[in-house]
Amino acid sequence: MRRLPFLFSSLLCLATVLQAQDEPLSLRLRWLPEHTYTQETTTETTSGIKITGKGEEQKMKVKQTTEIKVTGAGTGEKLARVTFVNLSGEVMLNGKKETFDSANLKDANPMIQSSVGKSVGKTFVLAYGADDQFLEVRNSSSMAETPDDGPNLVRIAEAKQVADLYRRSLEMGLPKGAVKPGDRWTAQETVNFPSAGTMNIELRAKLESVVSYEGRQHAKVTFEGEMKRTEETAGSRAVTIGDGSRVFGQVLFDVERGTVTFGAFLADIQLEISGKKIPVRQQVTTKLVGFTKA
């Protein structure tokens, strides 16, 4: 008899999921004011650059903790303040594995200290309207500051590009309108990468199904696509992303909360540095590990 309540609750959950399979779903990000979202992102990068005398591929693994605090404004806007809280990981430098944690960088390689120190603690604001449409990036100047001097115009522009790139990564693969399981759509966007210039990205996506994940109803979206340089980028920069670069991924979107709970992405990138082609594979996994009300 003790099993009956569990059986009934399981059947109710299954019925809810099956019912959702026939209903159009909005998969637009919906930030909830006075809530804090905490993400953990693990990025593993393998490049074709060989370490001198070792014959090994260059590898790097980085874990990043990001906090997003959402507040409401009197105008009805929603302000999502993004802060890069922590970075840790390992990387091969000069044939030696170097580990690091931004919580304690005193013993880290000076190159790592400089790179990580420029990222941790930096913050910016993503502004959204009452209808959850993105408006603009705000207050990104802190990302343009260095320990030696304040921000300059070039760094301010690059900081806005980083903030916008992060915002686009949150929405990757999601449809503009409501969709049902089995529906397919194509997204075409132009994205400005701070180091590699402007790229045209075409994604082909599909809502595979509605599933139960961690006890909550989620839309499972898969996608694949290609990245191509714009005409103004080709031949004009020392570092570019070459044609033939591809991206694959899937996300689990919490239908009730209006946010991505889990995302896994794989990118095969043809990096070009001063005309030399270097294959790079990047695997990115992002998980929502915290969702609290202020």
Automatic annotation (TrEMBL):
Leader peptide range in chain numbering: 1-20
Top-level taxon of the source organism: Bacteria
Keyword entries, A-Z: Signal
Keyword set includes Signal: yes
Protein name: Uncharacterized protein
Organism: Brevifollis gellanilyticus
Higher taxonomy: Bacteria, Pseudomonadati, Verrucomicrobiota, Verrucomicrobiia, Verrucomicrobiales
